[in-house]
Amino acid sequence: NLTEELGGPTLAPDSLTSNYHIGLRTMNIVGQDSNGQARSYWWTPDGGWNIHALSGGLDPDLIPLGPWQISGTSWLTVVTPPYDYTHSQSLLGHNADGDLVRLLWRSHGPDEWVLQNLTMTSVPYFP
After folding, report:
1. What CA–CA distance (Å, rounded) separates 116 from 118?
2. What DSSP line would sit under the chain, residue for residue?
3. Mean pLDDT per 10-residue interval, the chain, length 127 residues
4. Vertex 91, ends 99 and 123: CA angle to 5°?
5. How far is 74 from 30, CA to CA, in rounded Å?
6. pLDDT of residue 60
7. 28 with 39: CB under 8 angstroms?
8. Which of 1, 73, 90, 117 has the most crowded Cβ, counting Cβ within 10 A?
9. Taking Cα atoms as reference points, which of 18, 51, 58 lies closest to residue 36?
């Protein structure tokens, strides 16, 4: 039981989402704690299990509403040897207005999760 082993918060069962990020070699189990924060139990081969508040520092009213989905992606940033990749992870949900929002983390940036409103930044497909 990771909650007992790591002394971390209990996550609401109906809020859980998880993924394995191939590029980062990380496993994430994300859910909502009793304070409404998005929390992650994450694992790496070198670092073992860790706990992190993805929404730490955010106004609780801005935390994405569920259901949540966590996803990850990698892309090539240097196309000649030695190749280099950038990785990101996103916790997707919606806000009170129904907009698609996410908490975003990038490997080549500050070690923090940033809130983005994807509906507000999207471009209409049809004029």
Report:
1. 6
2. -HHHHHT-----GGG-EEEEETTTTEEEEEEE-TTS-EEEEEEETTTEEEEEETTTTS-GGGSPEEEEEEEEEEEEEE-SSSPEEEEEEEEEEE-TT--EEEEEEETTS-SS-EEEEHHHH---S--
3. 92 96 95 94 96 90 93 93 94 95 92 93 78
4. 40
5. 20
6. 83
7. no
8. 90
9. 58
pTM of the model: 0.88
In one-letter notation, the amino acid at residue 104 is: L
Token look-up 């990698």 returns 74
Query: In the numeric block, which tokens belong to residue 38?
Result: 């998005």
Tell me which of 3.40.50.970, 3.40.50.150, 2.160.10.10, 2.120.10.70 is the CATH number of domain 2-119. Answer: 2.120.10.70
Task: Find where tokens 């997707």 sit.
Answer: 92
